[in-house]
Amino acid sequence: MTDKPSVLFVCVHNAGRSQMAAGFLNHLAGDFIEIRSAGSAPAETVNSAAISAMAELGIDISAQRPKILTSDAVQASDVVITMGCGDTCPIFPGKSYRDWVLDDPAGQGIDAVRPIRDEIQQRVQALIAELTSPVPPETNRQ
């Protein structure tokens, strides 16, 4: 068991949005947050425009491979962030589910992927702040 929070990013192909989100979270939070990504219908490889867009910011996701979404991955995660995978993500009690509505970079050139990447970066930064901020002590009221 670990006390660090765990996040699962899910999109259909696990080749663009979820890979970029996992790359940002790994780059910005390192070992403070456990990171997973998966897809309901994984592609063969990570989107080359996503790889290039992340490389522009010094983040290398070229070694990543799309993975199939499993119930075990969902159960092992505290926060499940879906990105256009619809109802394919299993729902388990006690998990925090969020749906990030983002354009799909599939088939897009790097100029179209950059704004998607930048939106993901902002959302990941907000997620890190939320997951790593100390819980305020309860106020004693008399």
Q: Could you outline the blueprint of secondary structure elements for this entry?
A:
Elements: E1 6-11, H1 17-29, E2 34-39, H2 48-55, H3 71-75, E3 79-83, E4 96-99, H4 110-132
Parallel strand pairs: 1-2, 1-3, 3-4
Helix pairs in contact: 1-4, 2-4
List the keywords.
142 residues; alpha/beta; Rossmann fold; 4 strands; globular
Report on this model:
It contains four helices and four strands. The chain is an alpha/beta fold and 142 residues long. It has a single domain, classed as Response regulator (Rossmann fold, 3-Layer(aba) Sandwich). Strands 2-1-3-4 form a four-stranded parallel β-sheet, covered by helices on one side. Strand 1, helix 1 and strand 2 form a beta-alpha-beta unit. Helix 1 crosses helix 4 and helix 2 packs across helix 4. The radius of gyration is 16 Å and the shape is globular. The relative contact order is 0.23.
Supply Rg. Answer: 16 Å
Q: Please give the domain count.
A: 1
- By CATH, the architecture is named 3-Layer(aba) Sandwich
Rounded to the nearest angstrom, the distance between the terminal CA atoms is 37 Å
Order of helices and strands: EHEHHEEH
Q: Biggest sheet: strands side by side, in what order?
A: 2-1-3-4
Query: Would you tell me which CATH topology applies?
Result: Rossmann fold
Helix content: 25-40%
Q: Would you tell me the structural class of the helices and strands?
A: alpha/beta
CATH superfamily: Response regulator
Concise structural overview:
By secondary structure, the chain is an alpha/beta fold. It has a single domain (6-132), classed as Response regulator (Rossmann fold, 3-Layer(aba) Sandwich), CATH 3.40.50. The chain contains 4 helices and 4 strands; from the N terminus they run βαβααββα.
